[in-house]
Amino acid sequence: xxxxxxxxxxRFGPGAALNRxxxxxxxxxxxxxxxxxxxxxxxxxxxxxxxxxxxHVAHIYAYCRWADDLADETEGPIQARELLDWWEEQLNExxxxxxxxxxxxxxxETIREFNLPQKPxxxxxxxxxxxxxxxxxxxxxxxxxxxRYSANPVGTLVLxxxxxxxxxxxxxxxxxxxxxxxxxxxxxVANDWRRGRIYLPLEDCRRFGIEExxxxxxxxxxxxxxxxxxxxxxxxxxxxxxxxxxxxxxHGLRVPTALFVAGGSAILEAIRRxxxxxxxxRPTLSKGEKLRLMFACRRKYx
Length: 302
Known about the structure:
There is one protein chain. The protein has 302 residues and is mainly alpha-helical. Helix content is 75%, strand content 0%. The protein is built from 17 helices and no strands.
């Protein structure tokens, strides 16, 4: 458990004295600090967003950050499930107009202003709970079902913030979000294994002759490279299928949307450049590469 999260849990977690909740102004500031502290690209992304949405995106990010930390920065699955149950109680209280946690005090403003539905927030918690119980996925379809809860709700919330939600745009958004989640699974094979999780579908592993003992060895064998090449291809197909959303978003959100698609695609290309060896080094993008992507997206979608 990180020192920052330990302190946040002490101040604002279950059993904390919240008889005098933070003001809305203090809660907004807390969410902004949390976003900047945890997400190195937050300042860049927020500068590309319409000014009226920046604070609200920070509120949603803070909700997701707390849920993620409750799931992964605690003492084990039992405590994580208890804390996630508590977090959902706070969510329910927020939608009843009784928020006391600073994240929900800030988020309640966003919910009211944009008439956000509760379901996407609750769906995210379903995925975090699932991570405490399920560490392997037999089929690609099962993995896609997980992505439906772990990634797609964020895109749905953004569509509501943009005031352009529709079933068709949600379908495109889901494709992008799923593609990003799949790209992250390809990027983080080694980190996930250290946490006791394998997100690459087991039926694919068997098809390419990969067993758990191969994960334990952490070697980029020819068989593993062929397996990961297939998963990279799948992730890329989802990103490409959702890319038309970039031109259909309101003007101020086209570049940020395109940047997420381009960033996911660039990570997949980085995996290819490493010849699918994600064991010896986690594929990442340099600051220069990120800047080039940003300028390319601005030229294309401004």
